[in-house]
Amino acid sequence: MNHKINAFARIGGIAGIGFAALILLLNVLVLVPAGLPTPGSEPEDAVAFFGAEAGAMRLGTVFLPFVWVVATVFGAGAVAAVRDGERERGEAWALVGFAGILLQNLNMTTVSAVRLALAHTQAEESATALWALHEALFGLNGTFLALALVGLSTAGRRGGVIPTWLAAMGFGAAALQFASAVLTPQVMDGGNALGLLGLTGWLIWVAWLVLYGAFLIRGRR
């Protein structure tokens, strides 16, 4: 069965691929080379990093307004692609997913603000407290990514926009992200290995974004 996709949904598809590209570039070109501490790192190591790499944090912040704009357009495009069918079925999975996108934008705005604050904080006690806040917010962000993945995967599959295997990929990433969020206290206590759950889920999320965007651009299945 063919499913027509409107022009705005295709714009959303392009934005989804742009979103994935920007967050990859931010990490590969700026944050990882600078040595950004991973979840579960010792507070003193994190404080030392932010004190020494304020320039990297400022550079990374340049990417972020663009990241949040294209993320929002992607979510809105996914809603546009399935809204007629969902209205007929009395469903709102796309809105659930879009809410997840908006909430993760809000949460990551706070995370990024904390990183900038860390880069400009001299007092060690204040910096340690800010790092703990950063860890908590960053870990709990998995909740919102899981919401976006489940909502948009369900809407896309039921609306005929994406294939079953891509929806399953989204559900798998959502499970990893949600588990990572639930385990945030353990990660903050130094459970670096547990942080791999969130990292794996994040990598799948990026691949899912690119593929979902490609299906939105293609316009029919």
Q: What report would you give on this structure?
A:
The longest helix is centred in the N-terminal third of the chain and has 36 residues, at 54-89. The relative contact order is 0.17. This protein is an all-alpha fold and 221 residues long. The mean pLDDT is 90. 83% of the residues lie in helices and 0% in strands. The radius of gyration is 18 Å and the shape is elongated. Pfam families: DUF4386. The chain crosses the membrane at residues 12-36, 56-80, 92-118, 130-152, 164-183, 195-217.
Structural class by SSE content: mainly alpha
Note the gap between the termini.
Answer: 7 Å
Query: Which range does the strand content fall in?
Result: under 5%
Q: Compute the number of helices.
A: 8
Radius of gyration: 18 Å
Mean pLDDT: 90
Low-confidence stretches: none
Number of separate domains: 1
Number of strands: 0
Please provide the ordered H/E string of secondary-structure elements: HHHHHHHH
> Into which percent range does the helicity of residues fall?
over 70%
Biggest β-sheet, characterized? none
The backbone outline, from C-alpha atoms, is elongated
Pfam families: DUF4386
Keywords: Membrane, Transmembrane, Transmembrane helix
Protein name: DUF4386 domain-containing protein
Transmembrane segments: 12-36, 56-80, 92-118, 130-152, 164-183, 195-217
